[in-house]
Design goal:
two-stranded antiparallel sheet; 5 helices; alpha+beta; Nucleoside Triphosphate Pyrophosphohydrolase; eight-stranded mixed sheet; 32% strand; globular
Length: 187
């Protein structure tokens, strides 16, 4: 199924997702190449909410650019199979080899404002991430590996402490939504 069809079929969890879904579909129809960073206004990313088998912990990284604990994920870079991108990014950023995709596709959808920053000595202008989040499961006993060019720490965080450790206020409602949905829908 094509990415646009997946997003069209996705049932929003809340008002934020309804609004963002509508805008994402509009951006797909309006802008060229939303699958790569060549589109400097908005482009697709795939993120992950990685939980342990007991659903008591979330695997988070300490992101070097954002200076905050956050989820894993990355740019589509031309790949319209965002679940593939999500799993690839989870592996690259954590070293996990045994990752299981839960559910039947997109777990959360959001548009995230990215402030201007420096990456690899290059200035990156402010832009939007059209983000699809995937729910993944991993074994918390598996060895983790830091991806030094992106993060400086990786930890399994008590699912009830996520809001306390993240420094990005704009991400707190998203993380809260994902936890709410995880418990409500019993994945």
């Amino acid at each position: 199924m094509k990415l646009k069809e997946q997003i069209e079929k996705y049932i929003p969890y809340n008002e934020q997702e309804r609004s963002d879904k509508e805008l994402i579909l509009e951006y797909i129809d309006t802008f060229k190449d939303v699958l790569t960073r060549k589109n400097k206004m908005c482009h697709f990313t795939a993120s992950n909410w990685i939980v342990n088998k007991e659903r008591t912990k979330v695997l988070m990284i300490y992101h070097n650019i954002y200076k905050s604990w956050c989820w894993t994920g990355g740019h589509a870079d031309g790949d319209s199979n965002l679940s593939h991108v999500a799993i690839k990014e989870a592996h690259e950023e954590t070293g996990l080899n045994n990752i299981k995709l839960l559910g039947d596709g997109i777990f959360g959808i959001q548009i995230i404002t990215v402030e201007s920053h420096i990456k690899n000595r290059n200035f990156i202008s402010s832009h939007l991430h059209l983000d699809c989040c995937y729910l993944l499961e991993a074994d918390e006993k598996e060895t983790l590996k830091i991806k030094k060019d992106e993060n400086s720490d990786i930890r399994w965080i008590d699912i009830n402490k996520v809001m306390e450790i993240t420094n990005e206020n704009k991400m707190k409602p998203i993380y809260n939504k994902l936890n709410e949905k995880l418990f409500k829908e019993k994945f």
